[in-house]
Amino acid sequence: MTFQRRLVVVCAGGLMISMGLCGGARAFEEQSAQDQPPATDGGSSPSYQSRTAELRQQQLASAGGTSESERAVAAAINWLARHQNPDGSWGCAKFTSQCKDSSCRKHPKGGIGGGGGADYPTAATAFGLLPFLAAGQTHQTNGPYRKVIENGLVWMTKNQDEETGRFGGGNMYEHGLATIAICEAYGLSKDPKLKNLAQGAIRFTEDAQNDVSGGWHYTANPTTVGDTSVFGWQFMSLKSAQMAGLKVDPQTIAKAKKFLTSVSKGKASGLYSYMPESGPTPAMSSVGLLCRQHSGMKRSDAAMTEGMNYVMANLNGAKSDSYFLYYASQVMHNLPGPEWDTWNRTTRNHLVSTQVREDCAAGSWAPSEHTAGPVMSTSIHALTLEVYYRYMPTYAPVYANEPKIELPKKE
Fold first, then answer.
1. Residues 6+ apart with CB under 8 A from 178
2. E-assigned strands of 185-259?
3. Three-class SS of residue 264?
4. What is the pLDDT of residues 222-271, one digit of tens each?
């Protein structure tokens, strides 16, 4: 069924998209202008309970977080709050408009790899919000950043298409990121004003999938098979929706698994490529492995063992690739044991030591490969340091009788 035909079916079947989004967006904006009593942590979905104050500290201690890593997260969140635009958005290129000195201007402004100057406001706003949400903070919880989060959500809902549920006017990267943010905001707060907005975004994601390949690409309902990079953000938005208690079509997940099979490589199919015809890379393998973990692959599966070996063998390379580091840290956190300890110690210390600590730029990270300026790099590095409590590990801790991981040999 084509994207256009499915949209008609969704709109006809209860008018959730055409009416629910419009009313929901206006209701959220109007209510946000009033002083609301804060919701308690107990209102969040069970899958997000690891972000509550008590469990967050437990997960931090048990998974290898430190006071230094938490200070780095706090500094990153402070930097993001200070560089939010007055209208509630963030921008990849225009982040310096709120600066108090010239230190942030030393960072490349935007564009993947640090070049160019595109602002990507929808993606940047999602990146701006996600570290707050990962720490369990919402527009309804007490704290110094409540208004920052509220303003960001208001801006994002204003920039959601009232009929289709699509966020922004850019590519599917932006929609995927914004959908993760709105689903997490709803899952954490259970704010009824966000429910239809989040569900509408998921409907668009489902409609935008290639029906044959099961993949996603830059445009909705692509004629191409899709690519693993865009796929990862869409798949994780579906996971965020499930965690929040929203509806996800099982057929969407089934088709997504088909795409993962088409890009799997290696002797045990534990490595992943950007497209079916290309070779495996560490970053794409991490995306594929994380999606497999969230779609039921067992820890003992030979593909998971092969994938872990590949990720661990490229540990040093993760330091220069924020995208790889972000996904691989989630993969390894889902596999508690000595390999995670090695991965965590190396990446945690690297991120803490490379964060800027002076002047207006304090709390940010310079862009690295695959990041569109310091808003994205700061957000994605903060999220990497919040991996301890953002999600519960998929698999139980095991320190013995597991397939051994061959660590890279020192030259």
1. 122, 123, 125, 126, 156, 160, 167, 168, 201
2. none
3. strand
4. 999 999 999 999 999 999 999 999 999 999 999 999 999 999 999 999 99
DSSP 143-163: STTHHHHHHHHHHHHHTB-TT
Owner of token pair 């469990």: 55
Ranges 124-138, 179-193, 249-263, 356-370: which has the least confidence:
356-370
Residue 194 CA from chain centroid, whole number:
18
In this prediction, residue 402 carries a pLDDT of: 43
Query: For residue 226, which amino acid is it?
Result: G
State the Cα torsion 390-395-399-400 to the nearest 10°: -170
3-state secondary structure 45-77: CHHHHHHCHHHHHHHHHHHCCCHHHHHHHHHHH
In 3-state terms the chain splits into helix, strand, coil percentages (rounded to 5) of 60, 0, 40
Say which residues have a Cβ less than 8 Å from residue 289's Cβ, sequence separation at least 6: 270, 272, 304, 307, 308, 311, 331
Under 8 Å between Cβ of 185 and 169: no
Query: How is 274-289 classified by DSSP, letter by letter?
Result: SSTTSPB-HHHHHHHH
> pTM of this prediction?
0.88
